[in-house]
């Protein structure tokens, strides 16, 4: 881009900001800091998940150990899972704004902030693979929020993103419609297939999604990747639903 053209675009952006001051997509308050996308108050509402955490499901433990009792008995298929924040409050509002408010620009700060909160991606990742939407929902929404987040994580970490590595072949009910774990696992059973099995075999893959609730969706994806020959399967999500105490 030439210097004059860059200057004109900067000027146009400044004039637009004067006419339409940028607002936080979460709370709609005016943004006061240049380059800010989420206001400080909403960012402050992103709740960290206190360690120690189970390495496989990213839920808090009451003592320092590798895995919780449930994951030791019923493995999820993931070798590791990391999540940025507890799902709720202003984080939930931000993710809803991304998905249903079509605020795609939120993918970048959500990826960056969750990556910092989770102390990075799991170890030994060769490429990122977003959990896919069914084509019907993709057409309705116009984009896949997990793919946007994965692309930002890939940009930050210098990792490739395998779009189309998984395909959702069955339109499932939104997982948020049920809080029953068994129903959630049944809902996504057989919903995914490997889209590019030759690129998956013997690879260390990190699944990416916006939110992990019971882990049913990632477990279903992990099973498909394991059958396709992946050597290591981990997961990363911006938010993690914590069980009610």
Concise overview:
The chain folds into 2 domains: 1-44, no CATH class; 47-240, Rossmann fold. It is 38% helix and 14% strand. It is built from 10 helices and 6 strands.
Key attributes of the depicted protein:
245 residues, alpha/beta, Rossmann fold, 2 domains, 4-stranded parallel β-sheet, 10 helices, 6 strands, globular
Explain the overall architecture:
This protein folds into 2 domains: 1-44, no CATH class; 47-240, Rossmann fold, CATH 3.40.50. The protein has helices at residues 3-19, 40-44, 69-73, 89-99, 107-117, 135-141, 145-157, 181-188, 197-200, 216-227, and strands spanning 80-86, 127-130, 166-168, 192-194, 204-212, 232-240. By secondary structure, the protein is of the alpha/beta class. It has a 4-stranded parallel sheet with strand order 1-6-5-2, with helices on both faces. Helix 5 packs across helix 7 (145-157). Mean pLDDT is 86; it is low at 10-14.
């Amino acid at each position: 881009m030439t210097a004059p053209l860059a200057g004109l675009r900067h000027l146009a952006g400044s004039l637009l900001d004067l006419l339409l001051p940028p607002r936080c997509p979460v709370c709609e308050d005016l943004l006061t800091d240049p380059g800010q996308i989420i206001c400080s108050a909403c960012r402050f509402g992103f709740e960290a998940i206190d360690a120690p955490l189970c390495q496989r499901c990213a839920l808090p433990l009451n003592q320092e150990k590798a895995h919780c009792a449930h994951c030791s008995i019923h493995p999820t298929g993931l070798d590791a899972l990391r999540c940025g924040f507890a799902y709720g409050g202003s984080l939930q509002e931000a993710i809803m704004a991304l998905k249903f408010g079509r605020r795609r620009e939120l993918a970048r700060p959500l990826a960056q902030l969750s990556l910092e909160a989770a102390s990075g991606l799991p170890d030994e990742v060769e490429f990122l693979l977003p959990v896919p939407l069914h084509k019907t929902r993709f057409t309705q929404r116009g984009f896949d929020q997990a793919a946007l987040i994965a692309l930002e994580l890939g940009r930050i970490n210098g990792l490739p993103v395998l779009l189309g590595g998984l395909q959702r072949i069955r339109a499932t009910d939104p997982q948020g419609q049920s809080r029953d774990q068994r129903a959630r696992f049944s809902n996504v059973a057989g919903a995914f297939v490997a889209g590019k099995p030759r690129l998956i075999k013997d690879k260390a893959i990190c699944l990416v999604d916006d939110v992990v609730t019971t882990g049913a969706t990632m477990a279903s994806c992990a099973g498909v990747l394991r059958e396709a020959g992946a050597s290591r399967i981990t997961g990363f999500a911006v938010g993690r639903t914590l069980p009610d105490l």
